[in-house]
Write a structure and sequence with these properties.
Mean pLDDT: 89
Radius of gyration: 17 Å
Largest sheet: 7 strands, mixed
Structural class: alpha/beta
Number of helices: 8
CATH superfamily: Vaccinia Virus protein VP39
Low-confidence stretches: 1-26
Distance between the termini: 50 Å
CATH architecture: 3-Layer(aba) Sandwich
Strand content: 15-25%
Strand order of the largest sheet: 5-4-3-6-7-9-8
Length: 248
């Protein structure tokens, strides 16, 4: 059997600002990777189904993600009441987070509009794509995530702490490590911190999330599909750091 056709995917400008041809390996192998990654995070068929549904929503809304990574991550996330996302991109993950969260959840998205790692979506476009439910509180915080004032505003919007923190903004080592150090203390016991792009990006040397991920200790898990390549190079991968619950 031949490899699947070449698909042209619009890549978020904060990663690669062009239309990039993406060649995936055999579809059945992708499905196996997806199933393996799902079973590593949950044994519940319902959560698996929900994770795949949310993952497809994210990708349909232009999240630069692999289904075999993002679906298991969203299955693991469950139904949080408070989510903070750093880096809006095209709004795909924001849409998935709003769909995943509880009916009365608070979702905060921190993004530097027009910044070198931004997706270029306006507030109106992000809100339309997020499609938050009536009782959900969606806050778009515009500015540099490393600005102490932005961090304080985020903390004020989440006074009871954060269940899920997803870091996918500045991919330089200083940027991602700064985001982790500043925002991870907001996460409550039993919550999780997710970092996108923990795999070594062989064709994008400026992506240094893998350096930070390798230096972190604690309860860590990796949701990766390293054989799914972008222009022949490795990319992606979601790292999850679990914050110990109060009884541990």
């Amino acid at each position: 059997m031949n490899d699947g056709p070449v698909t042209v995917v619009a890549v978020e400008s904060r990663k690669l600002s062009c239309l990039t041809p993406v060649r995936m390996f055999r579809p059945e192998r992708r499905h196996v990777t997806l199933l393996v990654n799902l079973t590593r995070v949950t044994r519940s068929p319902l959560r698996m189904y929900r994770g795949v549904k949310l993952g497809r929503l994210a990708i349909r809304c232009e999240a630069f993600q692999k289904l075999s990574e993002v679906a298991p991550f969203l299955a693991l996330v469950g139904r949080p009441r408070t989510i903070v996302e750093i880096g809006a991109g095209m709004g795909g993950m924001l849409a998935a987070f709003c769909a995943a969260a509880t009916e009365d959840a608070t979702i905060v998205c921190v993004d530097l509009e027009g910044g070198p790692f931004g997706g270029g979506r306006s507030d109106a476009q992000l809100r339309s794509r997020a499609n938050a439910r009536p009782l959900q509180k969606l806050h778009l915080v515009r500015g540099d995530s490393l600005d102490p004032a932005i961090r304080e505003r985020t903390a004020a919007l989440t006074p009871n702490g954060v269940d899920v923190l997803f870091i996918d903004g500045d991919h330089s080592y200083d940027g991602v490590s700064g985001d982790f150090c500043m925002y991870s203390p907001l996460v409550v016991p039993g919550g999780i911190v997710g970092l996108h792009d923990i795999l070594t990006h062989s064709l994008v040397p400026g992506c240094e999330v893998d350096r930070l991920w390798g230096s972190l200790s604690g309860s860590k898990r990796e949701i990766v599909a390293p054989r799914e390549l972008l222009d022949g190079g490795t990319w992606g991968g979601i790292g999850v750091l679990e914050v110990p619950s109060a009884d541990h």
